[in-house]
Amino acid sequence: MKLAYAFPLAGLAAAVATAAHAETITVATVNNNDMVIMQSLTEAFEEAHPGIEVNWVVLEENVLRQRLTTDIATEGGQFDVMTIGTYEAPIWAERGWLAALDDLPEAYREDDLLQPVRDGLSYEGKLYALPFYAESSMLYYRTDLFEEAGFEMPEQPSWEQVREWAAELHDPDNQLAGICLRGKPGWGENMAFVSTLVNTFGGRWFDEEWNPELDSQAWQEAISFYVDLLGNYGPPGASSNGFNENLALFSRGNCAMWVDATSAAGKLYNPAESQVADRLGFAPAPVAETPKGAHWLWSWALAIPATSEKQDAAQTFLTWATSQEYVELVGETEGWTSVPPGTRESTYENENYQREAPFAGFVLDAINSADPTDSTLEPSPYVGVQFVGIPEFQSIGTQVGQTIASALTGDTSVEQALQSAQRATERTMQRAGY
């Protein structure tokens, strides 16, 4: 992003020389709200680091993942900074695709990063990505609608209660869905939510011998519940709605309830961006048979591909965008509900954040209580709450996500969808040598 300033004549030559030798780094990121804010603050970064310019590539989540995976696997070298997550970081680090971040400046305060988030972005004790924001999941609901209906939100809601509330509150004539949930296919879209639903219904992706269990009774019950709930009480076109689409629906007042990422809370509580900011309640993600794995753990993070020829400039950007100073910059310019959540202890100790963000303590507890090493009722061989931490899961999760979306649209039955998903996953795992 090139900037135009009125320089004093004495400094003009120096400014021209600096611009001529500026190093341009290409940053690929997802089109989520927090990243849009990061992009809007490019000028602040470039002012503080006049030798570096930032070129942005901002993409929808599924497209971003496909582009980045292809580029890094083929050593394409298109990007100097990649926005990846808790799933990719250890897998890509093990393959040597990422630069280790083991020489961070002391002022960065690495020990201020939340331990579960830091652990998720590490491989063999080394950080390979820095967390931009982190999240768990939670239930958002309209307090005004609950009061009018005489409903009380318990300390821990169940999915059966959610279905009863959705049935009562659903009002399509007034463009109000009883509930909004992810339906857009993708391992990080509908399957992020669906995996936690399966977890709490007592299911798992694989048994301890790596045999897929997608045709199990727990999967059948969970997906039948999901298709019934969203089909009867969801918004029109639910199979096209991912995180961003549901965030827009809820913030406009078109959803009575929404179960999704805790990172949405900042925007929903911001009256400048949300029409329901003054009538918003929140509760833990609902449970069914077991609380295990009912809420997820995820971090969107910034990493440097090993192919980048501008690693010093890239690391300068990483440490700026994930620093305590950046959090304070966002708080001062965008409002404290808009700061990137879930990454630093200091954010949750900040009096401004505590005052403006009523969800702060709740989110911190949700992140700290999510356990990727023990997320299923029956033991499983994998790490991850809403994903399976193996390289093959990106293709498996995407394929299963498409079959679940087909069941949601009525193109196939739940039983047929799960049988198809089971067979496809068995083939993939056999080819991979499990």
TrEMBL record:
Q: Which UniProt keywords apply?
A: Signal
Alphabetical list of Gene3D superfamilies matching this protein: Periplasmic binding protein-like II
Subcellular localization: Periplasm
**Is Iron-sulfur included in the keywords of this UniProt record?**
no
Task: Enumerate the transmembrane spans.
Answer: none
Which Pfam families does this chain map to?
SBP_bac_1
Family classification: Belongs to the bacterial solute-binding protein 1 family.
State the protein's name: Sugar ABC transporter substrate-binding protein
Name the source organism: Billgrantia bachuensis
